[in-house]
Amino acid sequence: DTVSADVVAKFDLPAYLHSQQAIVASHLESALEPRYPERLFESMWYSLSSDGKRLRPILCLAGCSLSGGDPELAIPTACALEMLHVASLIHDDLPAMDDDDYRRGKPANHKVFGEGIALLAGDALLAYALEFILLNTRQVPAERLLRVMHTLINRVGISGLVGGQAVDIECEGREDIDLETVEFIHTRKTGSLIDAAMVTGATLAGADDDTIARLSRYARKVGVAFQIVDDVLDVIGTRQELGKTPNKDEKSRKATYPRLFGVDGSMQRARELVDSAKKEIAPFGQPAVPLLAMAEFVCTRTS
Ligand code: GRG
């Protein structure tokens, strides 16, 4: 390790996240202009402006900085990652999917705008995210931009979010879910966009293949750990999130780590993954500190 645990422990993560969230918020604010059809626009903005952690945009900016790039280059891609994420959340909450009434402390998109508009808002955000990068990215060679577009398209489609969601749906209510299947779902549903954030941030900065591969492995491990802890927090019920009633659609029967290994076994696995993720980026030294602190936080958060 080239960074001591002490330096990471002393890093002011809340202040860092707060400042990065403010940067992302200000750019998202101007990313989506009111336009016709108004109802569709309102539905897109309702979810995009809602109160999320902005984890994926922040990781994209961090990946760019760590690779020696000006994070300004990555702002449009960072915004696009949040649009893609929000699109997936809107669709995920639909009655045909997870059937959730609340998201980010507010009524779910389909509860406010109806299922048809919610479905279309997700579609429109998906398309707009990609267009947004092409229209707004400055000073990045076209070849890098093509790679970025490919990474995002790949991590959303059948090899990414959508594929993970499809397997998740197929597993609903089944009793014979194995570890391989749970990990398949986690690496795609949660890992794909976290991976895309790191890889696109680094790509925009012109990072070499080894850097991109390290950041990608870091992201995949942190992504799975993040989902494991998320599921543990659901089980132990320390979270007081609006609408998080586990019995509504039998969420306890979902394919999760705690279901296979219990709370302690799951937290042990999350800890292993986080430690291993930190090892991937430790060689970058001081510039890796925010990412090391974020990885650590995945395992220690309580809500
Ligand atoms: C239309 C792009 C698109 C996809 C359709 C519905 C679907 C396919 C995929 C669902 C993917 C999904 C909902 C994954 C869950 C990922 C996850 C961990 C969400 C919670 O992320 P946080 O904690 O949430 O970062 P906030 O609200 O803070 O952003």
UniProtKB/TrEMBL annotation:
Record protein name field: Polyprenyl synthetase family protein
Family label: Belongs to the FPP/GGPP synthase family.
This protein's UniProt keywords: Isoprene biosynthesis, Magnesium, Metal-binding, Transferase
Listed cofactors: Mg(2+)
InterPro entries: Isoprenoid_synthase_dom_sf, Polyprenyl_synt, Polyprenyl_synt_CS, Prenyl_diphosphate_synthase
Listed NCBIfam families: FPPsyn
Claim: Transferase is one of the keywords in the record: yes
Pfam families for the chain: polyprenyl_synt (PF00348)
Keyword set includes tRNA processing: no
Bilayer-spanning residue ranges: none
